[in-house]
Amino acid sequence: MMLWRLNQLQLHQEIRVLFKITTEMQLLINFVVWILLVSDLNFKLFTSVNHHEVILKSSTMTNSVCVCSSGVFADSDAVKSVSVMQGNSVSLQTNTELQTDDVIMWSFGQFLETRIAEFNKCFERFSTYDVLDGRFRDRLKLDHQTGSLTITNTRTTDSGLYGVETIRNTTVILYRFNLTVSGVFADSDAVNSVSVKEGDSVSLETNTKLQTDDVIMWTFEHPETLIADIDTKHITFSTYDVLDGRFRDRLKLDYQTGSLTITNTTTTHSGLYGVTIRSRTDITYRFNLTVSDSVHCCDSAEAVIRLVVTALLRVAAAAAVAVLVYDIRSRRAELDV
Length: 337
What we know:
This protein is of the alpha+beta class and about 325 residues long. The protein has three domains: about 1-65, no CATH class; about 70-185, Immunoglobulin-like (Sandwich), CATH 2.60.40.10; about 190-290, Immunoglobulin-like. Helices cover about 20% and strands about 40% of the residues. The chain has three helices and 22 strands. The strands form four sheets. Strands 1, 2, 3, 4, 5, 7, 8, 9, 12 and 13 form a ten-stranded mixed sheet that branches.
């Protein structure tokens, strides 16, 4: 007798995803079942409240597989929420220790339909899959002791549902994680305010790490004027002598992150900057830069000092007058006596 038992899985879609049943596989399964029926093998299908069971009876074989969802969560159907700031690494922990013959399979997507990595403990073989337009390319690491998955240099496109299946003997253990990757700004439409004193340098940070095929474009003001760009695929880095040369010899690009540094700033550099990172998807950040005039700063500081000194002089003068009046009154009192 061949017995397949699916415990604690309520949705048909989850069952299909768990076994990676494609349309072609389903057709094959249907064909095999039809052959069994035609061959007059005893086939029986029934369901109960807590289980979905399919029993294929045969005089030659007996097999049993148990699929369960348990371990790191108190509720077996729970999804663990994980959050991380874009650009940082995040680890999805299984909180277990792999056994000799374990097989680990990591999947991603609303229905965990896309396999992204797997590990065979017996052969110590770790594989990642270049799927979803290379979204996870060169950014997945797996702990060979626990099966935990680490995603490096996270991006907002990494947000979503992750699942890990641990196949151990006749048991399949499923954990699920809902990952949220927050952008550089809490609001994707927000503008990051940056200020600097005239003559100093300022860096506009992307808080990310460039990938092989990324293209970075820096623009200034409206209408947007391209002032610098990076093409990592062709290894080209360019700055542009535009806007009457106001940025001439003042722009520096970080080839690892795409961040822009403006040296020897002047008040003409104040304004709105935008950086677009073109990868599998486009991500745009904006910065409002304010360059303070150093002369005005000095004038303001000098004015404050003058006000303070004037106030102190007035207090001193008032005190002197009070002392003088007191002295005069004292002498008059002595003369009257």
